[in-house]
User: Which sequence fits this backbone?
């Protein structure tokens, strides 16, 4: 089914829901989902509406300009319009760990994710065989202190050649430069292996073990310039006990990581995530 | 803050959201919450809207008739209108176990529940002291096979004298007659101490122990004629292990029961529960 | 590290722990794990001990007879002795769904499961490509009403030729005969896509949807003659909401299924599961 | 049932379990629970054993000296011996919030906690009525910057007069001095309203809201000199969404706090908690 998704954001005031729903009704949109949220603290209104395109009274290209003229202009709205065709194009960055990669590829295989994966990029060769077994092109771009800038240039070139819409860091163990991140604002999803904001940075499972926590977690977030501090998309936790070693925590945590990352990808793919003020609204 | 809550239900068709939100906009309603749900299987549309009454352009008594005339009539809508004043009046039925009762009373004490409790009814005297310590009138109505009909007559008389809106069975260990239940359709909330539909009936923790389950649960539901088979409002679970005895399960389960029951009461109080087809829509 | 695992079961009485630990101390066993459980209801004692074999004072083959003579005989103990070498040999049965299969194979790939998989058997061809991509032999044995007995004969022949220790039904959608099951008592692990004992049998997600539950689950259990009624090894749940369709439940549930099944396999591989009286003791 | 609990801690070596269980067997102890743990990182062994005193071959007072002579001395063991009689004596400190207090009192009422509560101390008068309704003496000791030292002197005097064994800070909003804490090492249990180590200090729910986390939590821990940094006894979490205000988080969190604190009290009462290296071993 071909559908359109409208994401709206504006200062809160009376009549917004009425005007947006009048617009969809006027052109005979068959609404699939509508969700709204008001952030009372800052007086902002957010809305997401999805509707079927078939039998809708406006051509795909006319929807944006018409909505701008008839509704958005009156309410100082910022809005984005998405369509579920062509399929979004996702790049995956990995290092050596396979659990998140496998989980994503198996969901694509089974049809759970409606996405194209034109390429996987890695700074190591370890996962090449896995990726190619799934018939996905694999690019090896080694990264070290001396060549980081260069490596990112190569990565960006590949991403642009392949018209990549968003990037998933599936336990990619390199920190991206601000430059890279600014190319893809709120389009780079990372999985961090702790329950943020606890245990920012390297070796969070070891830090969790040292602190003696009874629950560990994982956090999927959009990457921003500050390390592990971007808008949180999804989190999940698992219980651990005193007899669990750091190696146990790594293993228990991996089951959480892969589920959290896949949920975040799913929300992102369905345009259910609105990032603002370093937080996210998730319309699930 | 004085507010109105509108619950709408009708066959799904285009324009419903537009018409309802136009109505609220026309009379300058400051919308607090709007949620909708379409059951695709049966083609039914459900909506809940809450708005501030202050500065709303219709008097309290005029809202229903005006909405009927301007909107509901056109869409064959069934609708209900609620106001958060005066406070809803809740009766509690208990037997001997105190954990759910305490939890409810402590939430009323701390202001978490905006509700009046004109009375507690019990078939035993055990909890009289607790109830009176909270300055709530306690009525002892013993129930056995021979006097059940009579006992229910007394109960209903008390409920009617006290203008009770809804009833919470906080581990009340008697089965209510169909007659009683039909007096209060979707207004009697029960907590069953299992993860329904598993372990219907008496002694569910013992049955769970016998079956060797690894997780136990509790279920809050509206009471219907069929035992433990009414619309489920909320469920929650807790993990158990092989060394837990039936007595442990009872204790672990009580923590789940009280949380589940209190959530169900909260949803009911805020009119966030719509029961239909023996299920519930929960707009939380 | 080479290790031995001793599982003991006997009527409860004083001195059992003392005698078993004296035995391990006498032969200089470096104990890795000891766990015990008493079922008070039936007066039975259960124990699991794991220790390093290197520097142990008895040859591998002498441990059983010596333990029998010095300890087990005195306490009417039944005991089993396992070693983590050679690796256990696991067969996987699948039908068309890939999520559990992928999850297991990816854990073997990453070294999380210390197991050999000599073969995968399926009644369909759909997953052949996946399996062979992991370099695991795939056998297609179609099953229908007319050839069931024959098909099982072929399956058992393959299992015996390959010295299979235990079998995982990774969403294998055929019911095994009593005959088959009796070949592998407590050695066939199934994943059922409901929170047993709720929703036994076919289409549990649809049944859960119809009943309007707020939480769904999955159950890993040993297969016995009665359908979905064998000893439960592990269960887990996930929250669902009124807007989730049966198709959503299937998808949400698959994430639960794969985690539950993998935990059950892990417990089984480490000999941490004791099945008795249609329940399990899990020493994790 | 009268029982003894032995907690043992020593450098790990072969034969410890054998010697301790031989000791209990020799004097005909009916073992109820035995658990052990080895911290491989630091080579330390920990053990907890509980047994019935009736028919045990040593008088209550002779157990410690005999165990010292026959076992502990040989292994450089530190050990503690506890009995479940007389009942432990617990003091509760509160400020204005009632949810944890109610939860504890209702568990004592229903017999879930086998404990005496000789007094509740508060820096406010708000909860006096609740406490006295439960027939527990209430002491009001106001605290401000100028009188803190004096107030603690009064508190300690009351605790000592009442032979208090341990103290529960049930949302007591004052920081105790090092002096006070050193009087009660690992005997002061606090509930912190965040998932530590995230959101140390004041207003953690507001900090969690600002950070946009998807899950909040609560942590029960022993109080040490460093704020919110003592050994963690128990943690639990709850899911929150973008529409939850800080006030919602407070309310959702309170349900978690009371469950976590009560579990920690229960573990402590049953001597199932061993604190060392700023962590805890929990033998549940």
Assistant:
């Amino acid at each position: 089914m071909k559908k359109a998704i409208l994401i709206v954001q504006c200062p809160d005031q009376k009549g917004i829901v009425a005007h947006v729903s009048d617009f969809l009704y006027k052109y005979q949109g068959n609404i699939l989902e509508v969700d709204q949220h008001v952030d009372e603290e800052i007086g902002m209104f957010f809305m997401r509406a999805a509707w079927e395109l078939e039998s809708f009274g406006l051509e795909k290209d006319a929807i944006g300009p018409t909505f701008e003229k008839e509704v958005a202009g009156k309410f100082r709205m910022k809005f984005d319009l998405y369509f579920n065709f062509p399929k979004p194009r996702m790049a995956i960055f990995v290092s050596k760990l396979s659990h998140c990669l496998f989980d994503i590829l198996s969901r694509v295989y089974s049809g759970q994710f409606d996405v194209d994966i034109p390429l996987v990029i890695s700074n190591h060769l370890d996962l090449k065989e896995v990726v190619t077994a799934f018939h996905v092109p694999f690019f090896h771009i080694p990264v070290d202190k001396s060549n980081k800038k260069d490596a990112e240039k190569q990565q960006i070139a590949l991403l642009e050649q392949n018209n990549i819409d968003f990037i998933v860091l599936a336990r990619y163990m390199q920190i991206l430069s601000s430059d890279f991140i600014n190319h893809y604002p709120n389009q780079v999803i990372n999985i961090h292996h702790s329950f943020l904001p606890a245990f920012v940075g390297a070796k969070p499972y070891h830090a969790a073990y040292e602190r003696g926590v009874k629950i560990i977690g994982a956090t999927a977030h959009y990457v921003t310039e500050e390390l592990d501090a971007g808008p949180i998309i999804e989190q999940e936790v698992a219980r651990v006990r005193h007899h669990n070693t750091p190696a146990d925590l790594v293993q228990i945590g991996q089951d959480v990581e892969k589920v959290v990352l896949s949920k975040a990808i799913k929300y992102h793919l369905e345009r259910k995530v609105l990032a603002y003020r370093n937080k996210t609204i998730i319309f699930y």
About this structure: Chain C has a mean pLDDT of 96.
